[in-house]
Amino acid sequence: MLYLRCLLYLAGQIVSAVVVFLVALIAACISRPAKDRVILQWARFNIWTLGVLCGITFRVHGRENIPDEASIIVSNHQSAWETLALQLIFPTQSYLLKKSLLRIPIFGWGLAMTRPVAIDRERKIRALDSLIKQGAERLREGRWLVIFPEGTRQPPGYPGKFQVGGAMIAAKTGAPIVPVAHNAGVFWPKKSFIKYPGTIDLVIGEPIGSAGRKARELNAETEATIVENLSQLSSARI
């Protein structure tokens, strides 16, 4: 039964992605905010069906720590869940991602419509320059940045090494960093078709000021905060 529920969820993801992409194309002709609202509905629909079909819900701790200004969300990466849920928790966002993802039919085209910060990781020097330039531009537009500094999804209890890209944007722009920790990988594991029922906990830490600070210092503080919050979250299904 769990397998069947997950199969239905996947089918819903695919069908809804096609529908929302087509509607977003029309909305884009009206205005950028209209397009963003349409795309948000895809995330909302998928989080809702995840709860109905797979029994996965979530609770947020620390909503009071969300700043009033566009900021840089730095989160650990365990699952596909956080790429959906963060859209419901924070204001309109742009994600830092690999440029190659934009070539995936439908899904990648939809990502391109969210104005991501897309970089070519094979060209490291150019990638860093592009990262800072695009990141600063999105923040000026009032969009929040979402960055997963581990680069790829990690198993619960084993956080990866934090890359300094997000901290570099913060140091350059003065935008605050909002550290986010969650245990989504316990219920929606990396590369797992099966999604296990339960409640994901997500913790929003206090904003980390970046004005006048160096990137490596910011990165170290952000990593320490997220790892500390992760240590307080369960890594086992109950």
Short description:
The protein has seven helices and seven strands. The chain has 238 residues and is an alpha/beta fold.
Task: Give the tags.
7-stranded mixed β-sheet, 7 helices, 238 residues, alpha/beta, globular, 15% strand
**Global structural class:** alpha/beta
* Distance between the first and last residues' Cα: 19 Å
Per DSSP E runs of 2 or more residues, the count of β-strands stands at 7
Globular, elongated, flat, extended or rod-shaped: what is the shape? globular
Main sheet: strand order: 1-7-6-2-5-3-4
* Uncertain stretches: none
Largest beta-sheet characterization: 7 strands, mixed
Mean pLDDT over the full residue set: 91
- Strand-and-helix sequence, N→C? HHEEHEHEHEHEEH
- Figure out the total of helices: 7
Task: From the alpha carbons, calculate the radius of gyration and give it in angstroms.
Answer: 17 Å
> Beta-sheet strand percentage?
15-25%
User: How helical, in percent, are the residues?
Assistant: 40-55%
